[in-house]
Structures are given as C-alpha cells and as structure tokens.
Amino acid sequence: MTAPIIEREGRLVSVRFIGGITDDELQGMLEALEGFIDDPALRPAFVFDVSKGVVPPASQRQTMGAWLRDHAPTIGENCVAAAYVLPNAALRGMLTAIFWMASHPIPHHECKTVGEARAWARSQLQRPSAAPSL
C-alpha cells in the first residue's frame, strides 16, 4: 500500500493514488484535504489521479462519501472544481458510487489522462468567480 501523494502547485492541488490505501492512509489524506478546503483565501481546484489506483473497498467508499457530504458546504464555498483521472469503467463506477452518497458541491469533470485533468482544472481557476478572497 502507498499513501496518496498530495502536491500543491499554486492553487492547483493534485492527489495521486498508487495501488490501494489503508484506512489510516485514507484518514490522513482526508485530514490533509481539510487543510486546503478550510482556507477561503486559497480557493483551490483539485486533480484526483486514480489512474494507478484500485477500486477501494466499500467501507472506504462509504468513508469518502460521508466525508464529501459532511464537508460539502465548505467545499462549495471555498473550492473551485475537481477533476478525476479515471481511465477505466471500474474506477468511474467507484466515483459514481461515492456520488450516490453525496452530490458534488463544485463543478467536476472525469478525464482519461492527467494532462486533460490538469488543463480542465486550470481552466476552472481562470473563471472570474474562482478568484481567491482577499
């Protein structure tokens, strides 16, 4: 198992998954994401690269869905967009299952490549309504 790799480039936050993750690694990732979503001055866009990840077990999908539901107001207020790199049907199905538990509070886009996801997320950061709070 490899913990998700989180990198920030300006207002673009990338989360990369390689293989599966443990419950502790999932919790650590969610706590790290809270640091980004709780900062209204940042107004980030996210790229979640699951191209080298695996479909998580149902318990982890439930944890992700509950986290998204619980944090939706803050995400909707402080974040711009989220792109998901999901190159196959199984991974796209995983995201659909999470969204059944909680609707996404910001614009989101499913992509097949990291380049496509980063370009889309950056385009969302250019929208006038995406400007950070001063």
Q: How would you sum up this structure in a few lines?
A:
The protein contains four helices and five strands.
CATH architecture term: 2-Layer Sandwich
Q: Please work out how many helical segments DSSP would assign.
A: 4
- The CATH homologous superfamily corresponds to STAS domain
**Roughly how many Å apart are the termini?**
40 Å
Alpha carbon gyration radius: 14 Å
Sheet bearing the most strands, described?
5 strands, mixed
Question: Which spans have pLDDT < 50 for at least 5 consecutive residues?
Answer: none
CATH topology: Transcription Regulator spoIIAA
- Number of discrete domains: 1
Strand content: 15-25%
How many beta-strand runs?
5
Percent helix, as a range, is 40-55%
CATH top level assignment: Alpha Beta
Rounded mean pLDDT is 91
Label the structural class. Answer: alpha/beta
Order of H and E elements: EEHEHEHEH
What general form does the structure show? globular
In which order are the strands of the major sheet placed? 1-2-3-4-5
